[in-house]
Amino acid sequence: MTAIPRSALILGLAGLIPFLWGAANVAYPPSGQWIGPWLPPMFRGTYVSLTYGVVILSFMSGVLWGFAAKTSGAKAAVGYALSVVPALWAFFMVNGDPGNAAVNLAAGFAGLLMLDYFFSLQGLAPRWWMRLRVLLTAVVLACLAVPILMG
Q1: Which of 50, 75, 120, 147 falls between 20 and 30 A from 110, CA-CA?
Q2: Glycosyltransferase: is it a keyword of this entry (predicted)?
């Protein structure tokens, strides 16, 4: 099995910080004040998880697009079509009530993992891709469970 490149692992783990911060703010509300009153509300609690989650789902659409670009013909067309699903999901489904938005965002990340697996099966993702994606997705889903269950 191919190891996850160190830089990809470190940057992937660093990308979890906003999700962890949001979950901590919901689980322990005083933590939202640790960084001072100058930080806008969108960078605290459920809102930081929702805002950042939409950004990450959109970013991951671009990653999947890059995988699709490694092939051609009908296989590429299917890949391109599937690659836009996470961004469209985030745009249309992550809005309104924060609790419902968090549920929809979690569903988006679960769906993204299925798309990661599809691209991996096609041989378009690096061999280590699913090891990284399962790890990161597990943490994201655990973090999103906090506002869903406690909110």
Answers
A1: 75
A2: no
The CA distances from residue 135 to 69, 71, 81, 92, 139, in Å, are 25, 27, 25, 26, 7
pTM passes above 0.90: yes
As a three-state string, the secondary structure of the chain is CCCCCHHHHHHHHHCCHHHHHHHHHHHCHHHHHCCCCCCCHHHCHHHHHHHHHHHHHHHHHHHHHHHHCCCCHHHHHHHHHHHCHHHHHHHHHCCCCHHHHHHHHHHHHHHHHHHHHHHHHCCCCCCCHHHHHHHHHHHHHHHHHHHHHHC
